[in-house]
Structure formats: structure tokens, C-alpha cells
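Problem: given the chain below (124 residues), write out its structure.
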Amino acid sequence: MPEETLQSDTILIAHATVYLVGGESFELIPFQSAEDVKSEVNDLMESWAKSGFLLRGQRIYPWHQVLRVEVTAVDELSRSEAAQRLVEWEINDLYRVQQGFWKTKKAREKKEETKQPQAGGAPH
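Solution.
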């Protein structure tokens, strides 16, 4: 069989972190490629730079607020292990997004409930 038609048994997974000018940072969905994960990362960076925006989930970051994008690790995994890790990452990321939604800068004070006589109750 010609070498080009053979499918690799492994996938390269690149983990990347975005650092914003304001000090915030977050992980991107891991990049994956059987052959050249570096090109996948570079292509996406070029696309973001041309559009002027970095999109992550439902958040839009103007590209000028992105200080840097850093690839923190590259793993070579079997196809099945890579698929499982990506599912786990997506579940954990969804959990972080949901938790972040409920965060507040200042907790609202709870109003004290005034007790009112219940209907049908005996007078005191």
C-alpha cells in the first residue's frame, strides 16, 4: 500500500492557553491533527488575526486584547484515547463556563422575609 493512504494510529493534540492584556487567561479547545498540529494552530491564529476577533464559546474578544497564545503541551495519543480526552475536556470546559456564569463581583444581600400569618391559621 502506498504510504499516503495509510492512516496514522495516533493523533497529535496541542493544548493552548490565551493570555489577555487585562490578565485573564483561558484554555482553548485542544487542536488535533494526525500529521501537523503546528500548522493547525498557525492557521487558526492567522484566521483570528485577519478577522480581528477571538471567539470562544459565546464570548468574543477583540484581537487587540489578546496578549499572546501559548501552546503549553503537545501529546501523541491513540485515536480512541484522543477521542475520550476531547470528550472529557469538553465536559470539564462546559462545567467551568457554567460555574463562571454564576460568579458575581459582589454577592447580593438577601432580604429578610417577613413572616405573614398563613391563611386559615388560628389567630394569636
